Amino acid sequence: MINWLKDAVFYEIYPQSFKDTNGDGIGDLNGIIEKLDYIRDLGANALWINPCFDSPFMDAGYDVRDYKKVAPRYGTNEDLIRLFEEAHKKGIKVLLDLVPGHTSDQHPWFLESKKAEENEYSGRYVWTTHAFEGIGGHPYISGMSERAGAYMLNFFASQPALNYGWLNRTEHWMSAPDSPEALATQEAMKDVMRFWMDRGCDGFRVDMADSLVKNDDENKSATAAVWRSVREMMDRDYPQCALVSEWSNPWQAINGGGFHMDFYLDHHGNGYNTLLRDYETGGEDRSFFKKDSGGDIMRFLNDYLPRYEATRENGYISMFTCNHDTPRPARTLSEDEMKLFCAFLLTMPGVPFIYYGDEIGMRYLDVKTKEGGYQRTGSRTPMQWDHTRNYGFSDGDPADLYLPQDERKEAPTAEDAMKRPDSLWHVIQELIRIRRTYPDLQADGSFETVYAESGKYPFVYRRGDMIMAVNPSGQEVTVRSVQFSGRSPLYTIGKASVHDDLLTIDTQSFVILR
Ligand code: GLC
Ligand code: CA
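Above: inputs. Below: predicted complex with alpha-D-glucopyranose.
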């Protein structure tokens, strides 16, 4: 395993909304460089930056037009290389976002692929032979090219699927995963990865990592095989570079594909979802960290533990506060509730991710869709740094901002959060500091449940020599365990005490016992 991942805490940056340095209303790479000290002071030591490559921005940059060129609105390739260098000087790693499953329909490969004459890129994307022939149950477009055929979509209409072949082939136009054209796509993607790793990036977050080989088997074994060959290349040539998958199936992604980490995504009803976003069904919020929701920690553990047990030798599960696709936690959680969730997140195994702005409790805003964001747009608004113009995000005209900002008087800012000693920001900072100090609390430390009962509080878990207890409910609770004897609180949110084997933990409290 890569050493630096053991105590890594990631900070996700949506580049268009982090910090604008030239007044055009859009965040840029120089802005990220300017704020590296802020990130380091919070305690994060690694970044994931959403796609910052040349793009027509039909899907906020997940529609790449040139993988090897920084989008001019963010800066230049030199700026990105300088960002790697400056981050490294401060002990911060940088992951870029790799979009391997599709490109923009404006990508030169696709423009060539659309041509009637056979050329190097004819097989780079998934095409049928005839314009009047569809792609089974998959979305496709026809009638848009001189080439006779329909092309498959991987996501939006602007995102044609790259061709990594089909495992189960039912049509003559379906390439095999080891066909020359499918292998050429793999090689092209490895070339993109090498390009940025050679220039100093520390790895990639991989977009829709499970989407490569079509009609794959139920274990996604053909797609996993592509990633294993990528991992071999990395182990050989870039052994310090890391890969994290957007897959949410660690058996397939970590054990099968060789990813170092796999995101535990917010999928309705899964373990992660029950922690803080279990509010899609019938209006009742049953999230565990929501005070008095009647949340049930077993709904998390029953889903999480098998994932964890099956993969802990091979890689890490990554939980996050939020990401650019998910409603911000502050949509439903109060600052006190968020503190308890973050305390849990930062004392669990695996590698945690914090989404920019969540550390200050930025709200999920009701804003008009932008660049294919739709309901995701509300989590993508510009960072609120201070109370100067545009909350310190940009000195441009407010009308030019990438997205509108929180207009309330009490809108949180980083400046206020850093000034207030009991803020969520300081809780996160202190918990990261503690995590850094005690290897038991880091990615590899063991995990076992001490007290977890359906519908009851607190939830108590042990990591090596440390015991954590969290009580998100509105009642003081007690629990006995011989494991508490002789221990005392190392860190507390709210109130908690131990007498012999009895732990008493106040309403909405968290404690680390040592
Ligand atoms: C992933 C990204 C999302 C994007 C989609 C298509 O889910 O996180 O933002 O729209 O893939 O690339
Ligand atoms: Ca700018």
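Residues 180-198 form the longest helix (19 residues).
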